[in-house]
Amino acid sequence: MSAFTYQANQLYAENVPVIAIADQFGTPTYIYSKKHIVEQFKSYQDSLQGTTNLICYAVKANSNIAILNILAELGAGFDIVSRGELERVLAAGGKANKVVFSGVGKSFDDITRALEVGVYCFNVESVNELDRIQSIAEKMGKKAPISLRINPDVDAKTHPYISTGLKENKFGIDIAQAERIYEYAATLQNLDIKGIDCHIGSQLTTLDPFLDALDRLLVLTDKLTQKGITIEHLDLGGGLGVCYNDEKPPVAQEYIQAVRERLVGRDLSLLFEPGRYIVANAGILVTRVEYLKDTVHKNFAIVDAAMNDLIRPALYEAWMNIQPVIQKQEQPKQYDIVGPICETGDFLGKDRSLIINKGDLLAIFSAGAYGFAMSSNYNSRARAAEVIVDGNKVHLIRDRETLASLYANEHLLPH
Ligand SMILES: Cc1ncc(COP(=O)(O)O)c(C=O)c1O
Ligand SMILES: N[C@@H](CCCC[NH3+])C(=O)O
């Protein structure tokens, strides 16, 4: 069941009226449901019962340390792409030995720190990176656990900006070169080959691309085994989609069952890196209508949230459900919901049939993933507050930024 429901025409986050949260913390504010996060994570966990597995939540989807802490306490590992994310995981009580380190551009500092704290595995994306990890590990007198991220050339059938497993994408190692590069990795003294990794894209709504990629990885695994290179784990990345509008993506149980069927008779442990699936529908962004502006061609509702708070509509033309916090029985009108930023692309929704009055609160749904995490200070806008609801309790997990903090690290020239 959704964590956000209407009761007597008023939107609730779990058991708390959203209007009460907006009154207390102001707008725009991100509101998350703890229950939804826990349920989504557990659906992965339950489906993996009886296997050796690690579920590494993709920190980039929502990196607030309160959320990382909830997941760490449930036993989650973490998929990270920077030292910044690593430090967040550690600050949140996550265990280094349950961290996988992804990303095409790991810096010296990233790798050194990851080796220092002892991450579970580096998902390596190029030969140059293998060499860099080898040389740092050698200097530190360590052995670095690695997987190669394979680019299997599978069409994930998602938005081109979030598709990562096609041969023209910058991600991973071309599957045609993988055997040779594994053989090379095996010659490097300070590397320890652990597994095979793959992540073909985000917001996948069918199983076929996942299973096509899996089949290709299994062929590769068999070839490597024949060459004496042992693969302990298979990391299938993240990517499982959620419902924003009318999509009907498979749930974790269906996905994992299909994967498990393909792995019968094999001694491979499983690793997943879900992000969106865990947090997208655990969050809404609440915003207040500042102005209504009717022109000859369009009606605009100008709200206090903008593309700096939630960039998905501007960046991917992503459709996100927008609804009033208090439902009214009036005649709806067509609106574009836009922010105050000086960009034509600053919209949150277009051509929505809604009943809106000046000063109303609107909720933008499915905003828990890649919402706050992708926010910025563009137009010198302080970033939104974040709160988590747990039953009937509300916890502030990030203060609204202060204006002074926006230029606190800047310096005037000497006079
Ligand atoms: C390597 C890697 N793992 C996991 C994820 C998480 O993806 P999603 O949020 O679609 O589950 C991403 C982002 O797409 C990624 O790049
Ligand atoms: N930021 C994207 C997902 C990218 C996933 C990162 N690999 C989105 O909002 O849909």
Structural commentary:
By secondary structure, this protein is of the alpha/beta class. The chain has two domains: 4-32 and 280-406, Lyase, Ornithine Decarboxylase, Chain A, domain 1 (Beta Barrel), CATH 2.40.37; 34-278, Alanine racemase (TIM Barrel), CATH 3.20.20.10. The chain contains twelve helices and 21 strands. α2 (34-47) runs parallel beside α9. The longest helix has 19 residues, at 208-226. The chain binds pyridoxal-5'-phosphate and lysine (LYS).
Write the layout of secondary structure elements.
Blueprint: E1 4-7, E2 10-13, E3 16-17, H1 18-25, E4 29-33, H2 34-47, E5 53-58, H3 65-73, E6 77-80, H4 83-91, E7 99-101, H5 108-117, E8 121-124, H6 127-140, E9 144-151, E10 173-174, H7 175-187, E11 191-197, H8 208-226, E12 233-235, H9 252-262, E13 269-272, H10 276-279, E14 283-294, E15 299-303, H11 312-316, E16 322-324, E17 333-338, E18 347-354, E19 361-364, E20 385-390, E21 393-398, H12 403-406
Parallel strand pairs: 4-20, 5-6, 5-13, 6-7, 7-8, 8-9, 9-10, 9-11, 11-12, 12-13, 15-17
Antiparallel strand pairs: 1-2, 2-3, 4-14, 14-15, 14-19, 16-19, 17-18, 20-21
Bound molecules: pyridoxal-5'-phosphate and lysine.
Pyridoxal-5'-phosphate binds at residues 58, 61, 79, 102, 199, 202, 237-240, 273-277, 369.
